[in-house]
Fold this protein.
Amino acid sequence: MSRFAFSILARDATTAARRGRLTTPHGTVETPAFMPVGTAGTVKAMTPGEVSGLGFEMILGNTYHLTLRPGEEVIRRLGGLHRFMNWQGSILTDSGGFQVLSLAGRRDIDDDGVDFRSHIDGRKLRMTPERSLEIQAALGSDIVMAFDDCPALPSEPERLAQAVARTTAWARRCRDVFPDDGRALFGIVQGGDDRALRAESAAAITTMGFDAHAIGGVSVGESAALSREVVAFTAPMLPESRARYLMGMGTPADLVAMIGHGIDLFDCVLPTRVARNGGLFTPEGRILIKRAEYKDDGRPVDPECGCEACRCYSRAYLRHLYMAGEILGIRLNTLHNLHQYAETIRQARRAIEAGRYAAFRDAFLARWRDTGSAAAGPAGDIAGDEGG
Amino acid sequence: MSRFAFSILARDATTAARRGRLTTPHGTVETPAFMPVGTAGTVKAMTPGEVSGLGFEMILGNTYHLTLRPGEEVIRRLGGLHRFMNWQGSILTDSGGFQVLSLAGRRDIDDDGVDFRSHIDGRKLRMTPERSLEIQAALGSDIVMAFDDCPALPSEPERLAQAVARTTAWARRCRDVFPDDGRALFGIVQGGDDRALRAESAAAITTMGFDAHAIGGVSVGESAALSREVVAFTAPMLPESRARYLMGMGTPADLVAMIGHGIDLFDCVLPTRVARNGGLFTPEGRILIKRAEYKDDGRPVDPECGCEACRCYSRAYLRHLYMAGEILGIRLNTLHNLHQYAETIRQARRAIEAGRYAAFRDAFLARWRDTGSAAAGPAGDIAGDEGG
């Protein structure tokens, strides 16, 4: 088993974009990389073989959802999350922080941790930095996220400052109990949309010896434009030599824009959740397959796309499956959207390698006309249907 | 394109079982054969590639469901049902008779046809023998079923006799308008559980020049034992040289028993519907994956099974997916059940070829301990969830 490592293979000529490689105990992950979200031990509607066949090398698992059901001890006894769900690649687990904090009216936060009630059966539970790492250890993930305090936006300045202080204290507690066993522990920078708080959080987190750093607290209620602005000023606060992970964001266009700011790693529920709601990403944005105009449309969703849905089926057929509530429709839509994300990432990597990332990004964003919300919320939020 | 044909390749030594081959405009179908049900233009939760990969060469499509949604003219314009759903093999379509008749309180039957209201939007529509064949022609199926009157069981003797008379008259009208274009038209024998009525119906239907014959009106409310009894006395009334199709039945054990009476062709919603409800067929019957005993069970569903679900996943994982309502659970359960049906059919074919069908059948039935109902209803009944 390899120990965690990150190396930069190439840098773009004019932007902060970089082409890198993560090494984990379960293999390598070329970056920039997008992680499909496997909330409850499955990337919704997909087999692991389909996910890896699309080119993804790492997925995200949700600590909150898996501790509630089936319980991390079940997964540990069955050999860990990789074996439980038959995923051969790498796994990053979130800390559960966002989920328990999003349980409005069902949780009570203090400086030590969070009391909460299960959204499934109302059980009273407690999450702390130590407990989060204990669960993530039982799951056996390759990359462990520190437990953080992630307020929604907008929040009062006092709340954002409190979250930065707590996130710092909790990050230290996570670091202190994390074993040196080859897996990685990532620290998370909070601070909301306040540049000074972001700088304070980054200064604290990046001097604690984490293997890499994440930007949390974006895509939590604010506009996509504000999300991008926060990332633009926060990314340069993170050390250049370590991987940078932007949590819970966004559309293909968001990915392309944020890679230009030096982000290496992404996760988002959008491709899978939008698919289940009949939304299909294309290089122009997205189409809603239920629209009557597609009833007789024999063309593929995206004539440029090489995915199974576009090679074998018409818009009319996908519309029919959606209208009839057929599972195959969700499958094909999900496959298509994940393929679009994978293809976008492949194009971005090639552009960085060629030193022409700015031109690629500008052309991509000029073509993009999506009017849908970019803010999907962090992976596995309770309100969304990705929450199980 | 080949014209429809049926040839018998081998006969069992001691039972009425036979090993045959259907030829249709879309290829050959080895028999005995089981047709997965593709109610609304999809075998629920499966891709066509998965269905053919399991060894199935023909599927069933539902005239009633497809005329309501998306409408047969949409499918015709897009090149027919094969192309619409990307199925390369053969397709048999039912007549819609059972579905419109099962719309209790929403239909009015007379000697000419049936007035009914759509279960989707309440539209008033009419189905007649001629209209059923018109829809099936638009769908472009390889095997067309005559429009029949199929009463539930139990029914009064007068109702069963009326259904036989109507089915005969409607069969003649279907035959009179069916074009000689290489596709096949199958006649349906009714008569409920009344041996004399079955003989009367068989005598009428089998002298009209149909390409093959079906036993309808079984698995419509009666016990599995009575279904098997009806098939046992009706099958010998059908000409030996033509294919025999038992509509809408049953479990793997039913298939094995009925093949011994000379049935060549089956369809049933059981493998797909039971899968969606967490039932998994094994050589011993079926297991309900939600049971608490499987929570920590690291074994595959059926250690003898070679399907992807059994090769790659534990009972504990499949239980978790079911409890969490995950689509992947439905996919894997469906794949497993269809594999069990395919494997049962393959074993039956080999036993017939070897002239040892009785021994195979008796061993299979001795091992079978299923207590679930065998009666699933004809494909695509409105009450069931296969009805879209």
Observations:
- The first strand of chain A starts at residue 5 and ends at 11.
- Chain A touches chain B through 37 residues (CB under 8 Å).
